[in-house]
Amino acid sequence: MRKLVLLLLAFLPLPLAAQAFDKAEFAARRAKLLEKIPDGIAIVLGGIEHPYPIRFRQSPDFYYLTGLEEPGAVLVLNGVTKNAAVFAVKRQEFGPTVTPRLRDLENAQEKYGIAVQPMESFFTFLSFTASNAAVKKAYLQLTPPDWQIQARFEAQIFAAQALDHPLFGQPQPAALAVDRIREAASHLEPADVSPLLDDLRWIKSPYEVERLRRSGTLGAEATAEAIRATRPGMYEYEVAAAAQYISTRMGAHGDAFPPIVPSGPLTPIVHYMENRRQMQAGEIVYMDYGSDWEYYTSDITRTWPVSGKFSAEQEKMYRCVLEARNAIIAAMKPGVTLTQLKDAAEAVYQRHGYRNEFLGTGRYIGHFVGISVHDVGGISGAWAEKPFQVGVVFNVEPILQFPERKIHLRLEDTIVLTDKGPENLTAAVPAELEPLYALIKQRGINSGPLKVVNGSR
Fold first, then answer.
1. Positive or negative: CA dihedral 210, 212, 216, 222
2. What structural domains and CATH numbers belong to the chain?
3. Please, are residues 89 and 72 in contact by the beta-carbon 8 Å criterion?
4. Which partner from 155, 227, 329, 400 sits 20 to 30 angstroms from 410, CA to CA?
5. pLDDT digits over 144-154, tens only?
């Protein structure tokens, strides 16, 4: 088994090296936002540290504008003077050793292209800045900031649910911070900066697309390895482990989200993450997975048969989802809207006899992706009629489900719209039937029996 693993690893793409900090890229993003707020100041909150044993990941809005991973920092943009500064906390003198922070670096402004100020002076600075008669508005995150795996509207729902608990219920830290800022600058008219950021983040720059390409490569290679050697009797966590190992070995900063690997009757649980079930012959399994590369995420789903080949009924369903996926990607071009992409998918479902099932999903076909897995850009309302532009990255995700029969199939690919048309960033893992069947038969990290330790797997 060891020789097999070493042989497989020899043919993997080389790990991807981290890129140098591009301060001009982030300065250009700030400049665009500054142009949108000529009558006020914008205050964008960074993420705060947490006690959980996972790597800190910066708040998407703050990272988009600064590229900084500094916990507890705050960005202030003055649209009147066109100045920008990051307010950073002082490193604790006691406690565990941590990586040097902004205020520990003598050349922080030169390195990162932005002024660094002490957090303890924030309110004094705010009072002085707000006293300028030309400053009329305070642009704040009145709509909650998104998270790595939650869109803004999902973060809003989470915040509301967090208030419901009779003992632990409390406002989210970002909401408390916004209230304090509004109180301190009460004479300024509050305005929501989130829609302005959404417009900017929706169109990816070449810098961002390159990172999304790398993220897609990582996620696709990881997913392909997870599919290899699938067989009855395996556990869902073995599939997940293969993907995470390959993604990490190739240099990913982490998972875009925990692997989702439901099999058999569990497939309708859309965000199932337990991954403890033993897969049985004749069942289908899918894995929803993605990698995180320099704060840009991929999102891939592949559905495949545990026994190596779909039954006739399963294959009929799969072909419908596959054709819908291909039709949506083919229809992506500048000027197209989400509504038109949904129409293209509906025609496929109707042709295969599954139109009612498609309508039952609310004509769902996917979501936008970027720094967040569920990135800025809604999938209904005004967003459904917003014409696509070059630089838009959309996750095509057609599904077919029969909840009463505990059946759910889906495919998902990260697609960037370029000036040459749609580019599938996750195409390296096959979705067409024959290449998929061939991949399942290949030997991989999960080939052979798993060594038993103390009588358990």
1. positive
2. 23-202 (3.40.350.10), 206-441 (3.90.230.10)
3. yes
4. 155
5. 999 998 899 98
Between CA 7 and CA 399 the distance in angstroms is 36
Rounded to a whole number, what is the largest CA-CA distance in the chain? Answer: 74
Closest CA to 303 of 388, 406, 430: 430
Residue 352: what pLDDT? Answer: 98
Q: DSSP states of 322-366 as a string?
A: HHHHHHHHHH--TT--HHHHHHHHHHHHHHHT-HHHHHHTTS--E
pTM of the model: 0.92
* Beta-carbon contacts of residue 348 (< 8 Å; ≥ 6 apart): 320, 323, 324, 327
Strands (E), 54-97: 74-78, 83-88
Contact (CB, 8 A) for 50 and 358: no
| Helix ranges (DSSP H) in 39-138 | 60-66, 108-112, 122-130
From edge to edge, which strands make up the β-sheet containing 393-396? Answer: 366-368, 393-396, 413-418, 421-424
Q: Which residues of 97-134 are buried (b: 16+ CB within 10 A; e: fewer)?
A: eeeebbbeeeebeeebbbebbebeebeeebeebbeeee
Rg (CA), the chain: 24
Nearest to 332 by CA among 397, 258, 259, 392: 392
pLDDT in tens, 107-124: 999 999 999 999 999 999
Q: What is the pLDDT of residues 337-390, one digit of tens each?
A: 999 999 999 999 999 999 999 999 999 999 999 999 999 999 999 999 999 999
Strand-pair partners of 124? none
Beta bridge partners of residue 402, listed in sequence order: 407
**Amino acid (1-letter code) at residue 187:** H
Secondary element (H or E) of residue 303:
strand 300-305
Q: What is the pLDDT of residue 101?
A: 83
DSSP class of residue 266? G
Write the CA distances from 221 to 40, 215, 224, 417, 423, integer angstroms: 46, 10, 5, 22, 17
| Structure tokens belonging to residue 452 | 């038993």
Of 35, 44, 92, whose CA–CA distance to 64 is shortest?
A: 44
Taking CA 243 as the corner, what is the angle to CA 6 and CA 445, rounded to the nearest 5 degrees?
30
Pairing of strands 413-418, 393-396: antiparallel
At 33, is the secondary structure helix, strand, or coil? Answer: helix
Distance CA 191, CA 181 (A): 12
CA separation for the pair 222, 229 (Å, rounded): 14
The answer to whether 91 and 103 are in contact (CB under 8 A) is yes
* β 83-88/254-255 pair status: unpaired
What are the CA-CA distances from residue 139 to residues 78, 159, 401 (Å)?
Answer: 10, 21, 43
